[in-house]
Amino acid sequence: MDTDAELESQIGQWRGYVQRHRAISTADVDEMEDHLRDQVSDLAAAGLASDEAFLVAVKRMGNVDSISREFAREHSDRLWKQLVLLPADPDGADIRSKRELIVVLALAVVAALALKLGFTVLEDLAFGRNLSLFVLPFLAGYFAWKRQVTPRVAAALLVPFGLAAVVLNVFPFDPDGATEIIAAIHAPIALWFVVGLAYVGGEWRSDRRRMDFIRFTGEWVVYLTLLAFGGGVLIGLTVGAFGTLGVDIEWVIEDWVLPFGVAGAVIVAAWLVEAKQNVVENIAPVLTRVFTPLTVVMLVALLAAFATNRSVIDVDRNLLILMDLILVLVLGLLLYAISARDPRLPPDTFDRLQLILVISALAVDVVMLAAMLSRIAEFGFTPNKVVALGMNLVLLVNLVWSVRLGFGFVRGRRGFADVERWQTRYLPVYGAWATVVIVVLPPIFDFA
């Protein structure tokens, strides 16, 4: 194994773990990393192997003993407990945890009140357009506080939210048109990348921090889904229990519980990911290994169904929409699998299965593009068709290059870092496309 690559991977894991703690700013982490590298170099010059030098250097980082202790607990299989585990400081950790919980609950309450106010004041369509603006700014605020971003980064985070509010509420959308719905769907996608900017503490150019955000997104979806299922069951049981007593509480659920539940779940799920990362990191590989083979079977079956269809023009419009959603699911599985994989391990059977998944998705995407182009040639352009065509072209580029890099990796001609780097550097393209759909597409079609 490449010693330098292994050392960089170890330093990257350490830095990522340290940076997730709100008490340490990005500038401090940079300074600490420089100090760590100097320590590693000195120890290596004294005759220690790189991995030994790294472990000893981390132990000497007295300024982050408590964080290193947590890192040691999470990486116990690599002798962290022996080399780094130090006496705990429960009082300080407890104070920080309580302070963060207070901040999270306060932001959740404010977001819920904003959501409630928006639902009361705005009409249905206007509320749908602005839905993401009622919650996501507070989620970005949580990460900005936790990462202790500079005032310049904080100001930069406010700009896209302000521009989105202007565009979504100033554009003269036709109430019966498609562009308003399209803008409402793509607004949270574009603004999620603003949340990502807050999550990485302004380090959006860092491939490693982008991968951290990908990992967070997958874990956040897991927690949000669990909270949604749990909340739905609890609400159902509560309504049923009160119903047997002849008490109607559905208005309370609709007017108060749902707004607070939705807004709260978005922010609390993010806090849970930050607070319980060692638990979710065990879930992530399991989810990808369970759903990847199932998705491969589904894609192959769909390709076979397409093959039996006489003409791509006759493909049902609803099927095309469902296929787009499936391709997005495949992209999520691919990104989640990459973020959960140890980059130091050689290719295995699951990596080959991932390659089959990407090849199958690429074949489906090509069929989808053929169907869309045929329908456009037959019936002309519409906003929905342009959005679908653009999204599939964006996915096509990603899938084609992913297949190329995947082949190189499983054949031993490329490192996993190339696969990871491609996904992290291509990620902003999705945000850029969502922004184009919101800002450029409606005027082109006269807001209809």
In short:
The chain has 448 residues and is mainly α.
What does this molecule look like?
With 448 residues, the chain is mostly helical. It has three domains: 86 residues; 183 residues, no CATH class; 138 residues, no CATH class. Helix content is 82%, strand content 0%. The chain contains 17 helices and no strands. The longest helix has 38 residues. The radius of gyration is 24 Å and the shape is globular. The termini are far apart.
Key structural traits:
single chain; 448 residues; mainly alpha; 17 helices; 0% strand
Indicate how many domains the architecture comprises.
Answer: 3
Quickly count the helices.
Answer: 17
Report the biggest beta sheet as strand number plus sense, adding barrel if it closes: none
How would the global form be characterised? Answer: globular
Keywords: Membrane, Transmembrane, Transmembrane helix
Protein name: Permease prefix domain 1-containing protein
Transmembrane segments: 101-121, 127-145, 152-171, 177-200, 220-244, 256-274, 286-307, 319-340, 352-374, 386-407, 427-445
